[in-house]
Amino acid sequence: MSKAQEFEPKIVAYVCNWCTYLGADLAGTARLEYPPNVRIIRLPCSGRIDFNLIIKALEVGADGVLVSGCHPGDCHYTAGNYHARRRWILFRELLDTLGVDLRRIEFSWISAAEGRKWQQVVTEFTDQMRKLGPYKELYATGAFPDVPAPETALNGTRSFAAQSELREVCHKLLAEGTVKVVIGYGARGPVVATRPEDAERLVWNNRCFSNLTAYLKRKEIKALGKAAVIVKPCDEKSLVELEKEAQFVRKDAHVIGMACEGVGQPKCAHCTARTPRFADVTLGVAAGPEPQSSPSPDRFAALMAMPPAERMAFWTEEFNRCVKCYACRQVCPMCYCERCIVDKNRPIAIDPAPSTKGNFAWQIARAFHLAGRCVGCGECSRACPAGIDLALLNISLHIAAQKNFGYEAGADPKAEPLIGSYTLQDTEDFIL
Amino acid sequence: VSEIISQSALRALAAEWIAGGKSVAGPARVKPDLVLYRALRSGDDLLLEGFQRPSNSIKEFLFPKAEKLYGYKIRGNSIELIENDSPEPAQVIIAARPCDAAALPILDHVFNWDFQDEFYNRRRAATTVITLACSAHDENCFCTSVELDPGSERGSDAILFELGDGQYELRCVTEKGRALFDGKTEKSERTAKAIPGPERKFDAQAVRAFVTTHFEDAFWKEHALTCIGCGTCAFSCPACHCFDIVDAGPAAGNARVKTWDSCQFSTFTAHASGHNPRPVQPARQRQRILHKFAIYPEKFGEILCTGCGNCARNCPVGLGVLSVATEINHG
After folding, report:
1. Nearest to A189 among B30, B55, B317 (CB)
2. ipTM of model
3. B281 touches chain A (CB under 8 A)
4. Segment A216-230, tens digit of pLDDT
5. Which parts of chain B are beta strand (E)?
6. pTM score, whole prediction
C-alpha cells in the first residue's frame, strides 16, 4: 500500500482550558513530537464536556475521541472534574450497553506540567486507532441473536378489591374540598376528576399502567388547584426524585398510595416495592411479600451477553423504527424540561430528523439525562408505538448507579441526587 | 365469474416482485406483540392473518418520516445545492388495510393543492397498492362512521377478499393493479360475501357541526386534560400529513430534510418571538379534531380520517379520535 492510502485516524480531543490544554501547549513549546491526528477542542472545564459532544464527534466521522481535564483536586472551578468523573463512569456503561467500541473513547487527567504525558497519551491512542482502523461499526446494521421481548400485559381486566374504597376516598376529598382534582385511572386510561361524582369513573385494576405523577408537571393540571394523585409503589418513587429536584412540593399534593397486586409484565419486572411508603393514605392489600431488590430482567442479561457489535446492530434496528413522536419523553415523570434539548434549534443540538444518527443521538440524550433519576416505571417502553424496549437503556444506567455508587433512584429521600453531587472517593479504572 | 388467488401464490408473487427489483412492503411481525408495515425481505415475511391491523400506516412509503429534499456543500462563501431528483424504484404495497388505502386520495389532495409536491408525486406514481379487505374489526375500528367500510376500494389499485381455506378473491380496481396480476389468477365461481363493518359509533356531521360552533368551549379543556402531547396519534395516522423542514447538519451529510410533525407538539405553532397561538394542550387537541372534521372537509370535501383507530390503539393514555367524537356525539 502506498503511503497516501494508509489510514490516518481522525481524533477529536476535548480538553479543559486550565490543565490539559496547557499541558498540550507545554508539549509544543518543549518540542515534544506526537502524531498530528488530534484536533483539540478547548472547553472551560472537563465538567463542561457534555456527553453529547462525544457523540457528535463520532457522528461527524471521528475515529476516536480523547477527553481530558485536570487531575482530581486540581480543578480550577473546585469540583468540575469530580462531576465529570461521575458522569463518565455512568456514560461509559450506557455506551457499552449500546455496543459503542469503548476502545475509541479515552479519558485522562493531564496537568499543565504534564507535556510528556500528553505526548504519550496522544501517541498511544493514535497508534491504537491506527490498529483499529476507521470506525465503520458505528450505528451499523448486522445480525444479532433474539432478545426476549418484554412480556405483554394480560388482555383481561381484573378489578382489585380496593376500587370501591378508592372511589369513596376520592369522592370525599373532592366533596370536602380537600383537593380540587384527583388524578386517577379510568377504564381507558388516566382520568382527571374534578367533581365528586367523577369519582365513579375511577378504577383500580390490573390495567392501571400509567405513572400518573407525570401529570403533576402539566400547566393545565396545575391551574386546577391542589391535586390528589393516585400512585402505585413504583410510581411513588418518582415523587421522591422530583422532590429532591425541587419540582414537587410534598405538602401541595395529596398522595393516595395503592398497595399493589401487580399490573403485569414488563413493568413489574423491576418491582422493588409493593406497599407505598410516603402516601397520605394507603389503600388495598399488597399481593405477595415485598421484593428485596430489583432483579435485572432476562432481556437485559440477554442483550449484555452479546458482543458489542451485535448489541449495536440490535439498537440500530430498534432505533431505525423510531418516528420521534416523543411519547417516551412525554409519559416520563422525570422529563420536565421547559424546552427539551431535541427541540432546541438555535443551534440544533440533536438532528431532529428521525434518521439513524438523529435517533441514536436523541435516545442517548434521553437515557443519559435520566441517569440516576429514572425510577424504572417502564412507561417509556410501554408508550413506544414502534415497540422499542427503551427501558433497557435506563436499566443499564440503573445498574451502573447501583454498582458504582450504591445509588437507587427513588429509594432514599435523604440521599443526595446522583448527578449533581460527587465524592472524592468515586472510583473508576479507566481514566489514564 | 371471479378471479381467485391462493395465499401461497400471493407469497410467491411477492417474492417474484422482490426478485424483480421492486420494493415490496406489507404487514410483518416485528415483535411478538407488534405488527408493522415494513419492507418485506421475502414472501414469507408477509403476515396476512392473526392481527387487527399494523400499528403504523402505509403513508410512510409515500411520505417518509424523513425525506431528503436536497443536499448542500459549503465552499468558502458559496453554497452549492445538490438536487435530489433520482427516480423512485417501483414499489408495491401488499395487504394494506382499506383504511390505509383510503387515506391516499386524502394525501393526494393536500400534496397537490397550491403546490405540487414532486417527492410525494414521484413516489405515488411508482406505487401500486394492493389492499386486503378486513374480515374482522375491534373496539377501536370506526370506518363506518366516516363513510367507509371493511371492503372499501378507495385508494386501492387492487383488492383481495378472504374466501377462507387460504384463497382470496381478487378485484382489480385500476390498470396498475391489473398489470401486476395479469395471468396470475384463476377463474372461479366463488365470490366473497359482504363483510359486516363495525356499528356506526358517531355521526361525523354532528361532530363537524359541534367543532365549528364550539371553538371556545369547556369541552376541550376537560377532554384534553389527560393528553400528554406526544405525536403518536399523528404519526400512526394514515391521513395526518403535517411536516416540518429541518436543516440536518454535517452529521447527517448536509441536507435539507422534510420530517413528520404533529399538531400535538408544543413547538408546532411556537413563533420565533416566543409567542404560541396554541399555548396549551386543549387548543392543540381541538385543532386535531377541527382539522379532521371541519377544516379539511371544507377545503376538499371529505373527512380527514379513515376510521382505522390507530390513534386510540397507540395512545399511551387511551385517547383518540373515536373517544373525542363519541364524547361530542353522546355528551
Report:
1. B317
2. 0.93
3. yes
4. 999 889 999 999 999
5. 2-6, 23-31, 34-39, 66-75, 78-83, 91-96, 127-132, 158-164, 167-172, 186-188, 243-248, 255-260
6. 0.93
